[in-house]
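Quick note —
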Amino acid sequence: MKTPAGGHKTKLIPLKKTPATPKTPSQPARIVYFKVVRQPRCEVPKSGTSPGTPAVDIQIAWKVAGTSTVAFSDDEPNYYESHGRRAGKLGTFPAVDTVSMEFPCNDGEETTHSYTIDNMSGAPHVKRTIKYTLP
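Predicted structure written out below.
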């Protein structure tokens, strides 16, 4: 130990560590909304004098709080769980997103497709499926 001018010995005392402020728990995962924002339409082929109409893609939007990513699947509501919780059938998407996709139709028959989101982080596990049917 050195003696500073004035003759007193200086001893360094470690400061007491202040415990870290506990993190506020993140908000629980919850689906704020999951909805069809643009209704699809099946193509009506040109026939005789009828000009027909083109197909319109379905557009789906979601917002999931308490997570950063969601798994998005179509026509297989349990895909995320049955494939090791790695991704949805259509992939991994941000917690807030809007997607447009083709709505495959059955010629002249009623067509139904289902769309599912699962949170990929946060707790509790939340999941929602919506079904859309065209005559």
